[in-house]
Amino acid sequence: MSDPAAVTYFAPAKVNLGLSVRDLRSDGYHELHSLMVPLSVGDDLEIAPADTLTLRVEGADLPEDDGNLVLRAARAYLDAAGVAGGAAITLHKRLPLASGLGGGSSDAATTLMALARLYPASVDLPGLALRLGADVPFFLLGRAAVASGVGEVLSPTPVPRAALVLLNPGVEVSARDAYAWLDAEETFTPALDIEGILAALSNGRPVPYVNALQGPVAARHAPIREALAALTGAGLHSPLMSGSGSTCFALARDDAHAHDAAQVLAGQHPGWWVQPAQVLG
């Protein structure tokens, strides 16, 4: 039973409308260039004031201690704000795990924002977010943006509304592995054509984006290759793997087309996670 004092917060997923890995930096991180967009699907967090800090997870087998980024985010905020109390947090996990949709980072950013509302204080939220993970600042921003650097340099960018279908074939892909495979092959990529991507989205044309990680990851995971082919087979266009995978997506003409295509794909692949979604620009 939910705590009547709890407030529910939506933690949106994201996709990368293109992900270029330009180089391996001397500090071991990668120089990135990506157009990141939040989506209409995601996880939910219920957060209520409490004497201590606790986390409960529903919908997935995830740790409920400091192995969970949500709890680390909450602890970081409470410590920085000097709050003596805590919070009772319930994470309703709806996104697949290790799927390239940024679920854990979004959950962490949403936790920071929720606790800032619950316990207002002069806290450097962007600084906390960056220490928690490279994608967390994007979700703190809460809108589409071009990301560069290691993902922490964000330039808000209006993106046309778009409908798409998300397809996850049930494979978990470690981002660490994906980047290691890319490094071994040295298949780095040039900067994205952001103007070309935005123009194609506006006109419903094939989108000139790439994901530098897609080749190395798909070569090692046949289900990802099958997912990309299935999206095209369902009448969608511009299929791409998001982030380090394994979720793939493709664009639809409109919401109705996305809904119909998702139903077809769900019938063809009953063991896969399939969702129509909209870009929240």
From TrEMBL:
<dbReference type="Pfam" id="PF08544">
    <property type="entry name" value="GHMP_kinases_C"/>
</dbReference>
<comment type="function">
    <text>Catalyzes the phosphorylation of the position 2 hydroxy group of 4-diphosphocytidyl-2C-methyl-D-erythritol.</text>
</comment>
<dbReference type="Pfam" id="PF00288">
    <property type="entry name" value="GHMP_kinases_N"/>
</dbReference>
<keyword id="KW-0067">ATP-binding</keyword>
<comment type="similarity">
    <text>Belongs to the GHMP kinase family. IspE subfamily.</text>
</comment>
<feature type="active site">
    <location>
        <position position="14"/>
    </location>
</feature>
<keyword id="KW-0808">Transferase</keyword>
<dbReference type="InterPro" id="IPR036554">
    <property type="entry name" value="GHMP_kinase_C_sf"/>
</dbReference>
<protein>
    <recommendedName>
        <fullName>4-diphosphocytidyl-2-C-methyl-D-erythritol kinase</fullName>
        <ecNumber>2.7.1.148</ecNumber>
    </recommendedName>
</protein>
<dbReference type="InterPro" id="IPR004424">
    <property type="entry name" value="IspE"/>
</dbReference>
<feature type="active site">
    <location>
        <position position="135"/>
    </location>
</feature>
<keyword id="KW-0547">Nucleotide-binding</keyword>
<feature type="domain" description="GHMP kinase C-terminal">
    <location>
        <begin position="207"/>
        <end position="265"/>
    </location>
</feature>
<dbReference type="GO" id="GO:0019288">
    <property type="term" value="P:isopentenyl diphosphate biosynthetic process, methylerythritol 4-phosphate pathway"/>
</dbReference>
<keyword id="KW-0414">Isoprene biosynthesis</keyword>
<dbReference type="GO" id="GO:0050515">
    <property type="term" value="F:4-(cytidine 5'-diphospho)-2-C-methyl-D-erythritol kinase activity"/>
</dbReference>
<dbReference type="InterPro" id="IPR013750">
    <property type="entry name" value="GHMP_kinase_C_dom"/>
</dbReference>
<dbReference type="GO" id="GO:0016114">
    <property type="term" value="P:terpenoid biosynthetic process"/>
</dbReference>
<dbReference type="GO" id="GO:0005524">
    <property type="term" value="F:ATP binding"/>
</dbReference>
<dbReference type="InterPro" id="IPR006204">
    <property type="entry name" value="GHMP_kinase_N_dom"/>
</dbReference>
<dbReference type="InterPro" id="IPR020568">
    <property type="entry name" value="Ribosomal_Su5_D2-typ_SF"/>
</dbReference>
<dbReference type="InterPro" id="IPR014721">
    <property type="entry name" value="Ribsml_uS5_D2-typ_fold_subgr"/>
</dbReference>
<feature type="binding site">
    <location>
        <begin position="96"/>
        <end position="106"/>
    </location>
    <ligand>
        <name>ATP</name>
    </ligand>
</feature>
<feature type="domain" description="GHMP kinase N-terminal">
    <location>
        <begin position="68"/>
        <end position="142"/>
    </location>
</feature>
<comment type="pathway">
    <text>Isoprenoid biosynthesis; isopentenyl diphosphate biosynthesis via DXP pathway; isopentenyl diphosphate from 1-deoxy-D-xylulose 5-phosphate: step 3/6.</text>
</comment>
<keyword id="KW-0418">Kinase</keyword>
